[in-house]
Amino acid sequence: MENQLLILLTEEGAEAERVAELTGYLREELLDLDVDDVRAVPGGEVPPGARAVDVTQIGSLLVALGSSATALSQVVTVLRGWLGRCRDERPSLRLTLDDDVLEISEATDEQVTEAFDLFVRRHAPAGA
After folding, report:
1. Is 97 within 8 Å of 118 (Cβ atoms)?
2. pTM summary value
């Protein structure tokens, strides 16, 4: 089974439309990489009493990394650059690969770089 990276984008107090717009821009950038697919994660049933729109569903992307050894590194490079351009309202990111989760919010550029590098190293193929 190929590796799939789940990216969850959230932004404190953001409207659903803004999260959808940010996620769309990010998806477009990720599709330019050597990955098999990048798709939105379909929402499940809305529980009774819940708001009709769940922002966490809007901000979810599933990246099929394929067999490229560098795909995860490429995705992380795009995410780092993308976060760096989100200066006004910096969104939070949650990456999930296998059972490994990386959450980034309110971090300095150096902290983001360090966290991403560690995440990539943990998933690098043996001998890479």
Report:
1. no
2. 0.83
